[in-house]
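Bug: token stream looks shifted between consecutive jobs. Job 1:
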Amino acid sequence: MRGPHVLFIVSLASAAIAPAFAAEIALNAPGSLRPPFEALLPDFEKRSGHKIKAAWGSAGAARERVMKGEPFDVSILQPPTDIAVASGNILKNSERPIASIPVGVAFKAGAAKPDVSSAEALKATLLVAKSIAALDPASGSAAGVIFEQTLAKLGVASEVKPKVRIAQGGRGAMELVAKGEAEIGLTFISEIIGEPGVAAAGPLPREVAAPIQLVAFMSSRTKDVAPARDLVIFLSGEDAAKVYRERGMQPARRLPSRRSTLTIRRSEREGRSEEHTSEL
């Protein structure tokens, strides 16, 4: 039986709303967003009174958590998201674009800047580099997959792969470069800019690799609808966009507010759902 309809009206211009209670919001996100989110989330917590409990991993791992129905309130996913939506564990009507992120090339701070301005320049840089830190595509790393595809497009896989050192996450790759254990490193540019001991040579040329898109969703089983919704709005708002740009990302175009009916499944054991009309 459906519960009562509750009307939540939220201003997209200001996601900072004094809550009637403090909630703990479980966030499921790829590691490429960890640097900008570490700058953003404390501000959201201070302004809202809520607390964020974040789980980081590869883009593949974030999608897998959704598919398994793990208990998250908000998930950030890389398209295509059709399979994740079909699982019933996230709400299609809550979809909100966040930003796009290119894979970039890093080098040790103070060293000569590699040229990655074109496909040919990138090819030459990869061929002359003595060692390269990268992520494992088999682990579900989107940056690892893009690097592998880039090598294939440039026709240099056989020459470059023997020089690759697989790192644990983007921060792990940057640590190898900062320590001089890898001459260059590839990961999402958001994990390069601002990291100690490294500098960004630039993003991969678009003719080689397009930036990936990231989209926020609310869980269909969230216990606290309003706090989860407020976090989604905050992460797609102007304050967040400024931080994204500082990290080399392109904020998504802001969407006009729309009123959506979100069906929240409280739990399988309770065997009931509630509909909430919300502006997102």
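Job 2, same session, no restart:
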Amino acid sequence: MNFRNREPASSRLFTARALYFWYYMALGSLSPFLNLYYERNGLRGMQIGVLAALGVLVSSPASILWSSIADRLKIHHRILRISVLSALVCVALLGRTNRFALFIPLVVLYALSISSIVPLLDGTALDAARANERSYGEVRVAGTVGWIISVALVGWLIQSFDIHWLFYSYVACMVVMLGFTLHWTSPVRSAWAVAAISEAPVMIYAGRLMQRIGAAGMLKVACLTYALRWLLLSFIQDPIWAIVTQLLHGLSFAAFLTAGVTYLNERTPQGLTTTAQSIF
């Protein structure tokens, strides 16, 4: 996989571990709890079994197909990015669906999306381990750590707050993972690509968040996140961590925009909404 050979060996090792960690953090937030979500949406045992079987039936042959295409065309990094992005979109849509007929195409698309990820991560890990004279297990263990942390944390979040936290957590972890795949390209382009991607989940779930803390509360979150984001950037020298920090763009800019528009609308006299928004 020649595209990784341009990186220093130590950087490739760090990237491989980070990719494993965040991918299995994402899986740990979704896989153990997805059937519970189906059940709470009224699906019967047979319907849940059909959805689980579909995932296996689709992902197994798709994994071979995507891996063969990646090896033949030498586009491993591109396929990995597309797979991660499409997987997080599918899961975000799953979290907004409650009908069996709609679950079916989303589960199929999700299975197609993730089918290539593990083989590509394994290839990255093997290259990095060889370059650093490490074993594959020393790299892969990062995924196990991510899974353990995620299952415990997301289980607590679901029990304490809401079942939808499994989707919030998955999307957040996959966005971080996407950031690590993007650092193989220009750091500047990657940083702003990650920033733009981080807006999507905030925009989608802003309404639910404001139901809990209000528009004013979300504005406070946005302002604090802005302060944290710029503070971190002032200390960072490694482009990889600058890209990761750009994930805060969603909770700063996107949160500020949606909360600001809502806050202003709630306090504007009738008939002056457009004028107020133009000033904002």
